[in-house]
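thought: fold this chain, then report.
action: predict
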Amino acid sequence: MKWLALVAQVVDKIPLERLLVRRSDEKERLQDLVKILGEAHSKPEGAEPELIPDLPEETDEDTYPANLGNTRTKVRLEANPSVTSTVSTKETVDYQNREIGKNLLMLQRHCVQKFRINGKVCDCGQSKHLLELEALAEETIGMVDNPDIYYRILDWIRRLGPISTVENVSSGKYDDVIPAFGTEARDLRKELLGTLDPKALFPERHPEEMTELPSTAEDDRELTEEAFEKQSKDLLARGIIT
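observation:
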């Protein structure tokens, strides 16, 4: 075939030894290649030679194209007074402290009972309760000037977590240690709220805020403040919590 013969003639005219020699100047190598190919396809006499365009000078600066995908106008969110929360930092911290106190009271009871219900090991000392307490403490740290109490609560959580698993509780080897965590939880709660009175676990309510709760089935009724206070006093009387 004619095109195969033409390819063979072109390859035969290319001085491969010149191409295999490595040159330090990339521009010079490219110009030699263009020149070699030009000689292989030499034009008839009298024809004007093709001009080899100058290659751009090499620079050390990066010349990557700009990222045109980020040219959209940036949206800046402005606070909308009509939907901005009016809760003060103090109100938020008071709420956080009450919730932390409730969790400490609950875990205090479980520690005193060595994480057992009716003599059977429970999973109340695992991540479900400890994680909520840890999240509340960490969130409050940035809201107060002296976060020492919250760091000590976090330390208490990290020490209790590993020994309160079902496996470790079932082994019984921490039965003499776990109740001490209950005492420590009580002390932390008292320091945080300033009192052990269960009323401190609920916000102070003014008479105009009092509303009658709708009657519901007993099984669906949530724990009210009065019921929680009564239960706490009963536990105090029985010496389960102090």
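thought: worth noting. The beta strands are 116-117, 120-121.
final: tokens above.
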